[in-house]
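ASSEMBLY PREDICTION REQUEST
Request ID: AP-0331
Submitted by: J.K., bench scientist
Number of chains: two
Total residues: 669
Priority: normal
Notes: Please return the full assembly, not individual chains.
Input sequences:
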Amino acid sequence: MKRLLWGATLACAVVLSACGGGGGSTIPPPPPAGGFTLSSLKGQYAFSMSGLDQSGAYIARTGSFNADGAGSISSAMEDVVDLGAGITAEVTFVPGNYSMQANGRGIIALKDTSGNPLTLTMDLQSPAQGFLVQTDGFAATSGSFNLQTTADFLANSFNGNYVFDFSGANSAGANTSIIGKISANGSGLSITAGVIDTNDPNNGPSGPIPLTLPGTFALDPTYGATFGRGTAAFAGHQFAFYIVDTTQIMFLQEDSQGGSSGSAVLQSGAIPTQNSGFTGSFAYLVGGSSMSTFGPDAAVARFTPDGVSSIGAISYDENNSGTPLHISQGSNISNATYAIDTTNAGSGRGTFTFTDSSSARTFQYVFYLISPTNGVIQDVSSGIVADGTLLAQTGAPFTLAGLAGNYAFNWSGESVSNVENYVGQYALANTASNNVSGVVDAAIFGTTFTSFADIGTQGTLTITTDGTNNNTYQIVAGNPLGTTYNFQAYIADANTVLLLSTDKTRVLAGFVSRQSQ
Amino acid sequence: MHMRKITLWIVVGTTLLCCTTVGQEKTLQTSVRSSGYDLKREGTLVGTVIAYTESSPTPPLGAHVTLQTAGVVVDVHLGNARLLTANNFNIQAGDTLRIIGENVAFGSDAPFLARIVQKGTQALAVRSERGIPMRYVAPKNSAESKSQGGVL
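STATUS: Completed
Returned structure:
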């Protein structure tokens, strides 16, 4: 039944797209506001991007570039996995260049040693990190980058307990999620222990699987010292990695089983070992696919674990292939419980679940905590393969006055006919309406590749009650993009908002992060 | 604070847990990815090349040819220029081309997307029947294949 509904939605959407072509509004991009300059991008940065190639197959790229703070990229390299072409490649680039506007928007232009271009549009959150979208039309990828600490380009930087979240595709092209915790012993070059949870359409959720064989890792003798590159093997997979610093390492799966990418982040703080250690309010965002519609599925929500075994204050929004669903806490919610894993004690692993009678569904999740306030999360509900980010919700009540400022954002997902990736920047004002003004860059892949650069946007973030549940957020992108995007916005803190589109013609999910310059 | 990029998927090409058929998967895959291109709407253009560019600033990205047909000048999207070059499909002003394709609504425009381009006795498919642009993949073990990652 849902397939039929999605099909009907598709048909409608084609018409809407055609009709909407001439009906968009002209929104001049506002003058770039902010304090970013060419010197804001200075140093060596690791990046991780993923998406689809021109054949619609999974592609991911992870690499490193060195910006001189004056508009030049002095060196860069990347590892690429393209399941459509069956290619795993190490690519080195000749010196390139970049631009930067005051609002943190810029373009990185690279060419490999054969002259093939790689063009990335970026929006900086700060001089230390930003969002990226590929805008050269050769693939539809997006992601993020982080300033590397070159002094940490050593094997013994990979030392301690790391929580990871790798998302990608298996060799059949189906999406996979791998989350877990691994322990690395630095100069010992071994991954000594770990526990992982996997989920894919073929096998379903694995449950916690301890690593029975030690893994290995090593710095690349050629590119380790210059780019922080290395290779690793564990849990039956082989990876290339790039060291950001001792607390974060970006991984790219490179083996015959498929491809995936993501980061491993050093655990810190008091990781809960009992239910009593997991309290407060949390928000999460997951994305993947649904086995009921065979289409994209994403969800954003918040909940409050009570320090015993129950969760409450649930607010949940999902968009399953263009069918939005909202659930609020009430008598409709039952069996809302959580448990910190005591079998794999100290791993930071936990689970939670709740049942909603109004939708007749039970929602189930696995998470691993990086810290008491941050973690990765995997959706293991029946018929769902998805993963994402879990964040403590702090600083409520949220108000427009408290949130006002400049933000960078990244959305990605699927519309009825396209893969869509967006990065942008906007200023949020303390006014009830029309409080968003900025620009967006979009890379749209459907029957063609099209990129839209520096499109003016306007919109409104409306905060409901104390802002801890679902808030509405509408962005209108001017021509030639000419599209209105409707989101549910969950505020994690004064600097971070999680977004899920509620439109019936597209499923988008992403983050909004306050800019710090 | 670690925030992971969210990736959304259309399910393809796998044996699924729930009860379905491969046929169902393919149906959805086709509709979702290629709802803008329909073989039933295809038409044929015949005209003389006014201009050709491998990389046009006009969307969609890729090679474009401006064609003088009997009634009107048409901008045609040819897809990946490297595919044309690799197949020694050279296009110059004054050439006569026969192009099979269709107009597809996209954003605020409706470009004519070529699926098959013919010049004299040479014909080249530049787009699949589902409307996906053909990609150029360098032959394995060639020098070019080693640098393929850079253009992905």
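REVIEWER COMMENTS: Confidence is low (pLDDT under 50) at residues 12-35, 138-152 of chain B.
SIGN-OFF: pending second reviewer
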